[in-house]
Input
Amino acid sequence: MESLLPEHSYHIYNHSNGNDILFKEETNYLYFLNKYEKYISPVVNTFAYCLMPNHFHLLVTIKTENEIVSTIDRSHIIEKYNSLTTAAEKENYISLFVSKQLSNLFSSYTQAFNKMYKRMGSLFMKNFKRKHVDNDDYFIDLIRYIHLNPVKDGFVKNPEDWRYSSYNSILTNESTFLKRDEVIDLFGDDENFKFCHKKSVDI
Output
């Protein structure tokens, strides 16, 4: 499985286990985003997301090694990191830490979901998927692909009609964990951002 390396970008996605639903009501979507900000925002920069009833998509860039290390508040993890002698060992350790943060997000959400709906067992597929994003064109296409997912799947006619993606947040001035300005810069301006989301894209 591909490592999540500092300063590299990834399309991260996962699906519900079997025919389960990840998000049944608005409370679920908002709770997941709240937990995402707690567990994941300290270790990645987020450029786009979309939460769908049975799956989700994220486009992120892993923060620098120093930024990630500065967020770790558990002494045993810092001690282990400092005991490593090579740059490769330290990079791999940080990669595993980022993956663990994602696992913590899924576990925390699943526990709350199971308690709320009186269910048991896993909710997400065991191994979340990740694809390395290595050029700007692919990065831009992924932003569009992620925002157009609800349109492609027939939930809404326009990306702005889906409440559980980053599309609308990118076009507002409200507080957000998203790298809003960087996204708009990739498209040139707000109007071109909206224009580029008027046609579908395959990834």
Remarks:
- Residues 87-117 form the longest helix (31 residues).
- The chain has a mean pLDDT of 95.
- The chain has one domain: 9-196.
